[in-house]
Design brief:
Helices cover 62% and strands 3% of the residues. The protein is mainly alpha-helical and 191 residues long. It has a domain of 124 residues. It has a two-stranded antiparallel sheet. The longest helix has 40 residues. The termini are far apart.
Protein backbone atom coordinates (compact mmCIF):
# COMPACT_ATOMS: atom_id res chain seq x y z
CA UNK A 1 0.00 0.00 0.00
CA UNK A 2 1.26 3.45 -0.91
CA UNK A 3 1.43 6.40 1.39
CA UNK A 4 -1.64 8.65 1.64
CA UNK A 5 -1.92 11.34 -1.02
CA UNK A 6 -2.13 14.93 0.15
CA UNK A 7 -3.98 17.14 -2.30
CA UNK A 8 -6.30 20.06 -1.70
CA UNK A 9 -8.72 18.70 -4.31
CA UNK A 10 -9.38 15.43 -2.47
CA UNK A 11 -10.91 16.91 0.69
CA UNK A 12 -12.99 19.26 -1.46
CA UNK A 13 -14.21 16.34 -3.59
CA UNK A 14 -15.01 14.37 -0.44
CA UNK A 15 -17.11 17.21 1.02
CA UNK A 16 -18.84 17.97 -2.30
CA UNK A 17 -19.80 14.32 -2.78
CA UNK A 18 -21.19 14.13 0.76
CA UNK A 19 -23.24 17.29 0.15
CA UNK A 20 -24.51 15.90 -3.17
CA UNK A 21 -25.61 12.68 -1.47
CA UNK A 22 -27.67 14.66 1.04
CA UNK A 23 -29.09 16.93 -1.69
CA UNK A 24 -30.02 13.87 -3.75
CA UNK A 25 -32.16 12.51 -0.91
CA UNK A 26 -33.67 15.96 -0.24
CA UNK A 27 -34.69 16.29 -3.89
CA UNK A 28 -36.22 12.81 -3.70
CA UNK A 29 -38.20 13.84 -0.62
CA UNK A 30 -39.37 17.00 -2.41
CA UNK A 31 -40.53 15.04 -5.46
CA UNK A 32 -42.31 12.55 -3.22
CA UNK A 33 -43.99 15.39 -1.33
CA UNK A 34 -45.16 16.93 -4.60
CA UNK A 35 -46.61 13.59 -5.68
CA UNK A 36 -48.26 12.68 -2.39
CA UNK A 37 -49.08 15.93 -0.63
CA UNK A 38 -50.07 18.04 -3.63
CA UNK A 39 -51.78 15.73 -6.11
CA UNK A 40 -54.40 18.40 -6.72
CA UNK A 41 -54.94 18.62 -10.46
CA UNK A 42 -56.42 22.14 -10.16
CA UNK A 43 -53.21 23.39 -8.52
CA UNK A 44 -51.09 22.00 -11.37
CA UNK A 45 -53.42 23.44 -14.01
CA UNK A 46 -53.37 26.84 -12.30
CA UNK A 47 -49.57 26.79 -12.05
CA UNK A 48 -49.27 26.16 -15.79
CA UNK A 49 -52.27 28.41 -16.65
CA UNK A 50 -54.16 25.57 -18.32
CA UNK A 51 -57.89 25.41 -18.93
CA UNK A 52 -59.69 22.11 -18.30
CA UNK A 53 -59.45 19.97 -21.42
CA UNK A 54 -58.39 16.47 -22.44
CA UNK A 55 -54.98 17.87 -23.45
CA UNK A 56 -54.52 19.43 -20.01
CA UNK A 57 -55.41 16.16 -18.29
CA UNK A 58 -52.89 14.35 -20.48
CA UNK A 59 -50.27 16.94 -19.59
CA UNK A 60 -50.93 16.51 -15.86
CA UNK A 61 -50.63 12.72 -16.17
CA UNK A 62 -47.38 13.17 -18.11
CA UNK A 63 -46.00 15.43 -15.38
CA UNK A 64 -46.89 12.86 -12.74
CA UNK A 65 -45.22 10.08 -14.75
CA UNK A 66 -42.09 12.21 -15.07
CA UNK A 67 -42.11 12.80 -11.30
CA UNK A 68 -42.32 9.04 -10.70
CA UNK A 69 -39.36 8.53 -13.04
CA UNK A 70 -37.56 11.26 -11.09
CA UNK A 71 -38.10 9.19 -7.95
CA UNK A 72 -36.62 6.19 -9.76
CA UNK A 73 -33.54 8.27 -10.55
CA UNK A 74 -32.80 9.06 -6.89
CA UNK A 75 -31.40 5.61 -5.97
CA UNK A 76 -29.43 5.52 -9.23
CA UNK A 77 -27.86 8.88 -8.38
CA UNK A 78 -27.09 7.55 -4.90
CA UNK A 79 -25.30 4.53 -6.39
CA UNK A 80 -23.13 6.79 -8.55
CA UNK A 81 -22.32 9.23 -5.75
CA UNK A 82 -21.52 6.54 -3.16
CA UNK A 83 -19.19 4.73 -5.57
CA UNK A 84 -17.45 7.99 -6.44
CA UNK A 85 -17.03 8.73 -2.74
CA UNK A 86 -15.47 5.30 -2.20
CA UNK A 87 -13.09 5.89 -5.12
CA UNK A 88 -12.06 9.25 -3.63
CA UNK A 89 -11.41 7.49 -0.31
CA UNK A 90 -9.06 4.97 -1.95
CA UNK A 91 -7.23 7.81 -3.69
CA UNK A 92 -6.87 9.62 -0.35
CA UNK A 93 -5.50 6.42 1.16
CA UNK A 94 -2.86 6.36 -1.57
CA UNK A 95 -4.00 3.20 -3.37
CA UNK A 96 -6.40 4.10 -6.19
CA UNK A 97 -5.55 1.13 -8.44
CA UNK A 98 -7.44 -1.58 -6.60
CA UNK A 99 -9.85 -4.12 -8.03
CA UNK A 100 -12.72 -2.68 -5.99
CA UNK A 101 -12.45 0.60 -7.91
CA UNK A 102 -12.79 -1.25 -11.20
CA UNK A 103 -16.02 -2.82 -9.95
CA UNK A 104 -17.17 0.57 -8.69
CA UNK A 105 -16.56 2.12 -12.11
CA UNK A 106 -18.48 -0.70 -13.76
CA UNK A 107 -21.41 -0.16 -11.39
CA UNK A 108 -21.29 3.58 -12.09
CA UNK A 109 -21.40 2.87 -15.83
CA UNK A 110 -24.50 0.68 -15.47
CA UNK A 111 -26.20 3.28 -13.28
CA UNK A 112 -25.42 6.01 -15.82
CA UNK A 113 -26.85 3.84 -18.59
CA UNK A 114 -30.04 3.40 -16.55
CA UNK A 115 -30.21 7.17 -15.96
CA UNK A 116 -29.77 7.78 -19.67
CA UNK A 117 -32.58 5.36 -20.48
CA UNK A 118 -34.78 7.16 -17.94
CA UNK A 119 -34.04 10.45 -19.71
CA UNK A 120 -35.06 8.92 -23.05
CA UNK A 121 -38.36 7.79 -21.51
CA UNK A 122 -38.88 11.26 -20.00
CA UNK A 123 -38.24 12.83 -23.40
CA UNK A 124 -40.74 10.46 -25.00
CA UNK A 125 -43.35 11.40 -22.39
CA UNK A 126 -42.67 15.08 -23.03
CA UNK A 127 -43.10 14.59 -26.75
CA UNK A 128 -46.27 12.54 -26.25
CA UNK A 129 -47.98 15.15 -24.09
CA UNK A 130 -46.96 18.20 -26.14
CA UNK A 131 -49.61 19.69 -28.37
CA UNK A 132 -49.67 22.65 -30.77
CA UNK A 133 -51.28 24.66 -27.98
CA UNK A 134 -48.62 23.51 -25.48
CA UNK A 135 -45.44 22.70 -27.42
CA UNK A 136 -42.22 21.47 -25.92
CA UNK A 137 -40.09 24.23 -24.40
CA UNK A 138 -38.19 26.28 -26.97
CA UNK A 139 -34.89 25.18 -25.45
CA UNK A 140 -35.63 21.60 -26.52
CA UNK A 141 -36.30 22.64 -30.10
CA UNK A 142 -33.23 24.86 -30.13
CA UNK A 143 -31.10 21.96 -28.89
CA UNK A 144 -32.58 19.68 -31.58
CA UNK A 145 -31.77 22.26 -34.26
CA UNK A 146 -28.19 22.70 -33.04
CA UNK A 147 -27.71 18.95 -32.93
CA UNK A 148 -29.05 18.60 -36.47
CA UNK A 149 -26.66 21.30 -37.71
CA UNK A 150 -23.67 19.62 -36.10
CA UNK A 151 -24.42 16.19 -37.55
CA UNK A 152 -22.45 16.10 -40.78
CA UNK A 153 -23.96 14.59 -43.88
CA UNK A 154 -21.49 13.70 -46.59
CA UNK A 155 -23.05 12.13 -49.64
CA UNK A 156 -21.09 9.31 -51.24
CA UNK A 157 -20.82 10.85 -54.69
CA UNK A 158 -18.11 11.12 -57.31
CA UNK A 159 -15.96 13.31 -55.06
CA UNK A 160 -16.01 10.95 -52.06
CA UNK A 161 -15.21 7.34 -52.86
CA UNK A 162 -13.95 4.29 -51.09
CA UNK A 163 -14.90 1.90 -48.35
CA UNK A 164 -14.54 4.50 -45.62
CA UNK A 165 -16.43 7.31 -47.34
CA UNK A 166 -18.58 7.84 -44.29
CA UNK A 167 -15.50 8.50 -42.15
CA UNK A 168 -14.26 11.38 -44.31
CA UNK A 169 -15.92 14.67 -43.57
CA UNK A 170 -15.15 17.86 -45.44
CA UNK A 171 -13.81 20.77 -43.49
CA UNK A 172 -16.08 23.74 -42.99
CA UNK A 173 -13.36 26.33 -43.51
CA UNK A 174 -13.31 25.91 -47.31
CA UNK A 175 -9.88 24.26 -47.47
CA UNK A 176 -9.02 21.22 -49.50
CA UNK A 177 -8.16 17.89 -47.97
CA UNK A 178 -6.51 14.75 -49.24
CA UNK A 179 -8.17 11.38 -48.99
CA UNK A 180 -6.07 9.02 -46.78
CA UNK A 181 -6.83 5.93 -48.89
CA UNK A 182 -6.06 7.39 -52.31
CA UNK A 183 -4.42 10.31 -54.00
CA UNK A 184 -7.73 12.06 -54.61
CA UNK A 185 -7.85 15.67 -53.51
CA UNK A 186 -11.26 16.97 -52.51
CA UNK A 187 -12.38 20.55 -52.15
CA UNK A 188 -15.08 21.66 -49.76
CA UNK A 189 -15.66 24.96 -51.51
CA UNK A 190 -17.26 23.55 -54.63
CA UNK A 191 -20.78 22.14 -55.04
Amino acid sequence: MSRPVSSSALPIAHVVLRILIVLNWLVGAAILALLVVMPNEQWIMAAFKLSPSPDAERLVMGLRAIAVLGLAAIPLNYVVLKRLLAIVETVRAGDPFVAANAYRLQTIAWALLALQLLSVVIGAIGKAVSTPAHPRPSGCRLFDQRLARRTPHVPAGPRVRGRRAHARRPRRDGLTWRSPSSSTTCSTTGG
